[in-house]
Amino acid sequence: MNSTEMGNPANIADNLPGDPVPPRGRPKLLFLAYPFPPAKAPGCVRTWNIAMYLTRLGWDVTVVTPDPSILRNIEDNGAASREFDDVGIKRILTGHGWRCLAPNNLKCWNKNLGWFVGKIFRTGARKLGIDPHVGWIKAAEQACSALTAKDVDVILATGSPFAAFSLAKRLSDLLGRPYVLDYRDPWTGNPHAGHHLPRCATQKEAGVLKGCAAVTIVSPSWGCALDRRFGVGPKLHVVTNGFDPTEMEAVKPYDFGHCAFVYTGIFYPPKRSISPFLAALKLLRKSSQGNAKEWYFHYYGPDERYIREEAGRFGLTDRIVFHGRVPRREALSAVKGANLAVVITSVNEEETLEDKGIVTGKIFEAIGLVTPVLLIAPEGSDASAIAKPTGLVTSFSGTQLQDMVLFLKDIVCGQAPQPKNIEICSWSTISKKLDTLLRACMSFTRTTTNA
């Protein structure tokens, strides 16, 4: 299956037995979203926008998510709760067992002897292919124990963590309602996993895919890779990430006072490496335009040590400004005030489908903020193809240094790309596809259940 053959949500019911029945009243969505505000996690951007926009499109959305009180890193919980009330999103807050398997995200005994014991369990879980968040399944199932079939029309689970997929299947069996799986990342085929998962994990993934009503995934290449491995067929649909126009319009640009190149986030060397961009900056510095203009590379994120080492290697230490970890609103302000946002998916030339399918959420935020983007990605990458119609994204492979330098010269001289059709990357547009898909799945279930 290629990207053009993936399922169309408008006719998903044609691929399923039974006659679709139009829903009555507001349909009810049970959304299993482990990352959800006020948690500080990249996945929260997608889950929040899904919940908010589906609510606006007429859904009653109930989000099942861990209680913020057990999370280590959260934003303003009170402000988030007020926003949920304003939008009309309900939550079922859950506990979490086996927190020692994910001590970076969950509050647990993680000092001295606690750390040592936890490490033993984490090592064993990794070797056995056990999801670090497996302890959420039973806790979430208990939190949902009062739900009946009347409370739910369709279940949507987003991963990672992929414990949410197993939970979706269990709740589907209990409630007699269909479940849809949303892949924010690949599961057993993740290009950034760093280790191979055992066969039992692949079998578990195959099992939940077989029973689901539909699958959404963020890029065509990841969809093709998933279909090759599991034969998902017409159940598979691409629902990319995007930006919220209202959020982006409210962002105030930071005034750098000079030409600023901005990168926000983390790196995964050697695939997602800063080296090609710094090599281009070194050449820019040697050019007449680059030497005459004041410019700096600003880094927002936790990998300061790595960037410092690379900057020293390229002789650019005096051209790098470090900001560390900052709240999301500060990072967005920096991107909006920047002359150029830098996004890197992979610096390698030849990549697998899983690598070509990497489309980071940062690229959509920059588009929504109308900031030009220098994208380093493999030739033919999904990130380049998806973002090209917006007019703001210029893509290079990791070896196209001279082309990068020419582009950077244009930026420092004030000749930036202009926006075109950025609306195609907004959640206002993207959410309508997901809405159509979920309604089709719900209609099918009501028909077959009543038959």
TrEMBL record:
Domain of life: Bacteria
SUPFAM superfamilies documented for this protein: UDP-Glycosyltransferase/glycogen phosphorylase
Residue ranges of domain Glycosyltransferase subfamily 4-like N-terminal in the record: 47-246
Protein's UniProt name: Glycosyltransferase subfamily 4-like N-terminal domain-containing protein
Annotated segments matching region Disordered: 1-20
Organism of derivation: Candidatus Nitrospira nitrificans
GO molecular-function terms, A-Z: glycosyltransferase activity
InterPro entries: Glyco_trans_4-like_N (IPR028098)
A Pfam family annotated for this UniProt entry: Glyco_transf_4
